[in-house]
Please model this.
Amino acid sequence: MDNKKRKISIIGSTGSIGRQALEVIEKLEDKFEIIALAGGHNKELLQKQADKFKPKYTCLGEDGLEKICSDKENDIILVACSGKIGLRPTLTAIKNGIDIALANKETLVMAGDIVMSEAKRHNVNIIPVDSEHCAIHQCIKDITQVNKLIITASGGPFLHKSIEDMKNATVEQALAHPRWNMGKKITVDSATLMNKGLEIIEAHHLFGFDYEKIDVVVHPQSIVHSAIEYVDGSVIAQIGLPSMHIPIQYAITYPERFEGIKSKSFSFADIARLDFEKPDYKKFPTVELAYNMGKTGGTATVCMNAANEEAVFAFLDGKIKLYNIFEITEKMCAEHEVIQNPSIEDIFDVDEQIRVKTREYIAKFWN
Ligand code: MG
Model:
């Protein structure tokens, strides 16, 4: 960043990542100028944000996202909404040559091949906000010399609980994440480890690594945010207190760093110990499913994402149990006829079909 203010828009400013991004920007107000803020449905909060940060314009809901992402005045757009609505605007921004700070997982899980090849074609940087990918991004100096990526997982609230406990888990238990404070959908995904499954697919697209070269390790303290192994066996990890402010700030100020919102200095002595263990793929079949769907490619990951999301909503609505999320998602994936090299329209069609099918299946067996 030179002395000029960086012009930024935030898609999803009223969500968890969006709100934290504005806290970062507030600390670095001389570094940023906000072009637009787009909120989901919290009109009141969006108005408050607009009064405080004075963007050129705001929008609520999906309308207006295309306008924001076509506005070439933006240097960077933070895509912090959740769900598939992030995909089209992200592609629009890429086509307009605007860099992306990407917090929305669906963009890469649904259309990683298209998004990354468009980004390359338009010479656009996609800088990950997801803490694991941000960690890997910070570790990589020369990607051609990296042998594998090691993604850490906190393990969620059921890490050391029995399968029985997990089967009978309430919504409150699933939402009680031990380390990170996040939106509801992603918190349930963390409890089932599907979040890690989605992150494996994200990493595959972002860094161009084969699935065989992406490992997952459970690390309950969430201090090591992820690591890479170089060809010579040297491992570089990115370490820090679990706060989303750091990856958000890194992504929107990259390649520069500022003190910003940093609250306290890191101390290894205070941490005292770091634990690591293999993920239990029997208890959490999501990780293996994600590897398999990722390797299958095409619309396989679209199907997995859509089925999982609908199942998570049904769980949050009290219609199904936590463990049913696995069986529902697996069933939809097993029955899906994969389209290879799908167009964006194919992707949205499959997404919609799977959602309808998943809802029908749930209504049939759990009502
Ligand atoms: Mg993450």
Q: What stands out?
A: The chain has a mean pLDDT of 95.
